[in-house]
Amino acid sequence: LDLRRRGRTVLLTTHYMEEAQRLCDRVAIIDQGKLMALGTPAELIASLGAEHIVEFRTAQALDDGRLGEIEGVRRVARDDGAVRLTVDDVHRVLRRLLRRLEENAIEIEDLTTHHATLEDVFVSLTGRHLRDG
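^ thats the sequence. predicted structure below, dont judge the formating
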């Protein structure tokens, strides 16, 4: 950080997306030797098309297409048995999601929400987490 403040250029390689998001002015996401994306952390996160991620698990199977019909849902993805929704307004979408699940007698086993991060960008581009190898 001190070198950055002094205007020095630093090339940092890391598998820790949180570290890259915090320290870097520009980020290149490279997967298996291929450049997947390049830009500022904010630009890359904005490329997801929404600001929040809602991740949940249910015991019953879900129709991804029906989830994508919920107003405010920009992307539906599966990740290690969980459903990941990229959404605009987490408060409104969460209310709609819970209503849809209740109408179909589907119980949520686990639910988390967070602001979109570079890790979410990596997962979106590659379909896997860095820990998956």
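The first strand starts at residue 27 and ends at 31.
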